């Protein structure tokens, strides 16, 4: 590397470091203390595994196998796992691109703008709040079953039953207490709670191995062949079971949420995401197969499937071991929800979308204690009053919507052109010299990266025939429009498959023609995406086969959303109406979207860092590639007018650049 480039990059790094120090002082009530970077890859992997392997495997398996899919639950978990893995790959790329707390909320903020980010963040709050409450309710139910239902009987005899359709049968005071106790344990600090989580996760995985080995040892293959066979509810039951089983995978986004507390987020988050998703998906498939081979699916206990299955074959000691594993698994899931919820609230408050006191960090524990207290109390109240079944069915819709927008955002950012700020942050393409002392290998990487940055968002030469259609669009604009159209036609096709499947099987012409039209439109949208150049400079982890894998993730998420009940959609609309009131009455007036000292402008390496408005589709134009002669006469770029006084200093003083 020539001395001029080393000096330039050195000053870039120095100035970025000083700016990062200034962005920690966004206000007296926001981001006073940074989150503590203390989690390694092993901690984050076990955090994701622990968040996923909980109530989903110990409670959901029995319900889906007995009432929805039968032995086909194996395929349901496989389908739900593949859908989640597609979204997880998108999360992993974003986690390396933007290592900040807030997960899907932050990703959406950077790629498609503030409003949609608030929509996602508001739904993530609901997801984790209901997730914590549902797991606490399941935890209480397992303990109650171990003591012969003495707790529920005593509660009913003391305070009576709640005769309301939307509420549980009785107030669950044990679930209420569990939420508060675990919230207090998380308040001791990230590292201490991570050690506790890792211990319980290892116990949980050991019990799962016991279930798998014992189940296959006592397996009877006729349990998959007698009666109506392997798919007693048909393939529609498999898909409906997958929509329900999706609840068992929603915890992996806690990995991305921990990005601001990871020691090496660019390396840890992709590894932790892929490893945890693979382990959990394989574990779910093997456990569900062992359960349905061990006992007939119609005899499975919906509330305590695994312990009762071992008890039915005479292994009473295994019943208690599995119950201990279930409690450990649900404990880690509860920890995962209560870990992620305060950090999402913290990220939204830091941007001014939620009340400012939610953006403070405790200086001693380096944990958002105020958010943690609110999260614990809110989840405890929900667990006290509502039944587990009503909580679970309301949880998936917001999660699926978040996964859909994250997958779309991966495509949008891959084809969006970079700005000068991104180039300065990555140190690629800022200066191209003709220093003859450099070898070809040294020149290849900077020059190839510079060409990629300059061509990002443009049509590939082999697709110039599309210029009359998309040639007048801004760089990246055609792809963004294609993603939106693809999502709309995916929704239309999934709705038709849901409500006109019988007509299509009988060959009614208009249904077949309409489906063919939707499929052709989807293929056309993918063609427009593929026809453009990508920008992958600086990404340590990249989703393979973009845009195919993110587009498939969008379609699968929409398909599962269509299978949710109508009442779930009604509840979702009510929750969103409440959130829009918060946004338009408070958030939009306190937003830091145009604040040039926002921490996003330093931490992220996407092309949005220098834009005047977040989520705007306007780019700053292609990057100039300077020849050696032009380099010497190039004038410094004038800073935009909306940059604060502290940031108007040039990153590189003129006298420091060798002429």
UniProtKB/TrEMBL annotation:
<keyword id="KW-1133">Transmembrane helix</keyword>
<feature type="transmembrane region" description="Helical">
    <location>
        <begin position="369"/>
        <end position="388"/>
    </location>
</feature>
<dbReference type="InterPro" id="IPR002293">
    <property type="entry name" value="AA/rel_permease1"/>
</dbReference>
<feature type="transmembrane region" description="Helical">
    <location>
        <begin position="271"/>
        <end position="300"/>
    </location>
</feature>
<dbReference type="GO" id="GO:0005886">
    <property type="term" value="C:plasma membrane"/>
</dbReference>
<feature type="transmembrane region" description="Helical">
    <location>
        <begin position="478"/>
        <end position="501"/>
    </location>
</feature>
<dbReference type="InterPro" id="IPR029485">
    <property type="entry name" value="CAT_C"/>
</dbReference>
<feature type="transmembrane region" description="Helical">
    <location>
        <begin position="543"/>
        <end position="562"/>
    </location>
</feature>
<keyword id="KW-0472">Membrane</keyword>
<feature type="transmembrane region" description="Helical">
    <location>
        <begin position="41"/>
        <end position="61"/>
    </location>
</feature>
<feature type="transmembrane region" description="Helical">
    <location>
        <begin position="507"/>
        <end position="531"/>
    </location>
</feature>
<feature type="region of interest" description="Disordered">
    <location>
        <begin position="611"/>
        <end position="659"/>
    </location>
</feature>
<feature type="transmembrane region" description="Helical">
    <location>
        <begin position="568"/>
        <end position="586"/>
    </location>
</feature>
<feature type="transmembrane region" description="Helical">
    <location>
        <begin position="230"/>
        <end position="250"/>
    </location>
</feature>
<dbReference type="Pfam" id="PF13906">
    <property type="entry name" value="AA_permease_C"/>
</dbReference>
<keyword id="KW-0812">Transmembrane</keyword>
<protein>
    <submittedName>
        <fullName>Cationic amino acid transporter 4</fullName>
    </submittedName>
</protein>
<feature type="transmembrane region" description="Helical">
    <location>
        <begin position="104"/>
        <end position="125"/>
    </location>
</feature>
<feature type="transmembrane region" description="Helical">
    <location>
        <begin position="73"/>
        <end position="92"/>
    </location>
</feature>
<keyword id="KW-0813">Transport</keyword>
<feature type="transmembrane region" description="Helical">
    <location>
        <begin position="199"/>
        <end position="218"/>
    </location>
</feature>
<feature type="transmembrane region" description="Helical">
    <location>
        <begin position="394"/>
        <end position="413"/>
    </location>
</feature>
<feature type="domain" description="Cationic amino acid transporter C-terminal">
    <location>
        <begin position="541"/>
        <end position="591"/>
    </location>
</feature>
<feature type="transmembrane region" description="Helical">
    <location>
        <begin position="320"/>
        <end position="341"/>
    </location>
</feature>
<dbReference type="GO" id="GO:0015171">
    <property type="term" value="F:amino acid transmembrane transporter activity"/>
</dbReference>
<feature type="transmembrane region" description="Helical">
    <location>
        <begin position="173"/>
        <end position="192"/>
    </location>
</feature>
<dbReference type="Pfam" id="PF13520">
    <property type="entry name" value="AA_permease_2"/>
</dbReference>
């Amino acid at each position: 590397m020539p001395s001029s480039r080393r000096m330039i990059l050195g000053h870039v790094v120095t100035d970025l470091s000083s700016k990062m120090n200034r962005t920690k002082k966004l206000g007296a009530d926001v981001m006073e203390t940074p989150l503590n970077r203390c989690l390694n890859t092993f901690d984050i992997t076990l955090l994701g595994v622990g968040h996923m392997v909980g109530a989903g495997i110990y409670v959901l398996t029995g319900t889906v196998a007995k009432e929805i899919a039968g032995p086909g639950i194996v395929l349901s978990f496989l389908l739900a796992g593949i859908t989640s893995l597609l979204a997880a790959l998108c999360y992993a790329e974003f986690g390396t691109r933007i290592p900040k707390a807030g997960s899907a909320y932050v990703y959406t903020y950077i790629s498609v703008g503030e409003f949609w980010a608030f929509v996602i963040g508001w739904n993530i709050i609901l997801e984790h709040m209901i997730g914590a409450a549902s797991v606490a309710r399941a935890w209480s139910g397992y303990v109650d079953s171990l003591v012969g239902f003495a707790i529920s009987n005593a509660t009913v005899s003391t305070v009576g039953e709640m005769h309301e359709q939307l509420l549980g049968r009785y107030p669950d005071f044990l679930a209420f207490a569990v939420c508060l106790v675990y919230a207090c344990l998380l308040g001791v600090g990230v590292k201490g709670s991570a050690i506790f989580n890792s211990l319980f996760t290892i116990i949980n995985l050991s019990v799962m191995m016991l279930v798998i080995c014992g189940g296959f040892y006592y397996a009877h293959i006729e349990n998959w062949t007698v009666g109506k066979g392997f798919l007693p509810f048909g393939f529609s039951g498999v898909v409906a079971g997958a929509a329900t089983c999706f609840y068992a995978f929603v915890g992996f986004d806690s990995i991305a949420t921990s990005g601001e507390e990871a020691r090496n987020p660019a390396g840890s988050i992709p590894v932790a995401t892929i490893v945890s998703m693979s382990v959990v998906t394989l574990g779910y498939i093997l456990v569900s197969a062992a359960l349905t081979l061990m006992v007939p699916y119609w005899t499975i206990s919906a509330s305590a499937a695994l312990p009762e299955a071992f008890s039915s074959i005479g292994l009473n000691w295994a019943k208690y071991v599995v119950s201990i594993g279930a409690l450990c698994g649900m404990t880690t899931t509860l920890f995962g929800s209560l870990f992620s919820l305060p950090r999402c609230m913290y990220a939204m408050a830091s941007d001014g979308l939620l009340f400012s006191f939610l953006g403070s960090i405790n200086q001693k524990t380096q944990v958002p204690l105020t958010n943690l207290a609110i999260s614990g109390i809110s989840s405890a109240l929900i667990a006290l009053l509502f039944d587990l079944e009503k909580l679970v069915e309301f949880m998936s819709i917001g999660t699926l919507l978040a996964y859909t927008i994250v997958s779309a955002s991966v495509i949008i950012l891959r084809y969006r052109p970079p700005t000068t700020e991104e180039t300065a942050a990555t140190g690629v393409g800022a200066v191209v010299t003709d220093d003859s002392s450099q070898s070809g290998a040294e020149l290849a990487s900077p020059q190839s990266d510079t060409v990629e940055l300059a061509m990002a968002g443009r049509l590939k030469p082999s697709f110039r025939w599309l210029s009359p259609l998309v040639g007048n669009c801004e760089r990246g604009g055609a792809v963004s429009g294609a993603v939106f159209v693809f999502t709309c036609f995916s929704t239309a096709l999934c709705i038709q498959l849901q409500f006109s499947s019988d007509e299509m099987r009988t060959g009614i012409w208009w249904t077949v023609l309409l489906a063919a039209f939707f499929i052709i439109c989807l293929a056309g949208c993918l063609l427009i995406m593929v026809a453009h150049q990508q920008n992958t400079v600086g990404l340590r982890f990249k989703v393979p086969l973009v845009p195919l894998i993110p587009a498939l993730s969008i379609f699968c998420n929409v398909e599962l959303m269509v299978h949710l009940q109508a009442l779930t959609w009604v509840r979702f609309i009510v929750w969103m109406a409440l959130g829009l009131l918060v946004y338009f009455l408070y958030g939009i007036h306190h937003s830091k979207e145009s604040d040039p000292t926002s921490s996003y402008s330093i931490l992220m390496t996407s092309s949005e860092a220098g834009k005047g408005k977040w989520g705007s589709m306007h780019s700053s134009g292609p990057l100039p590639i300077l020849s050696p002669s032009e380099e010497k006469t190039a004038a410094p770029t004038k800073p935009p007018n909306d940059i604060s006084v502290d940031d108007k200093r040039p990153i590189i003083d003129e006298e420091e650049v060798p002429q």
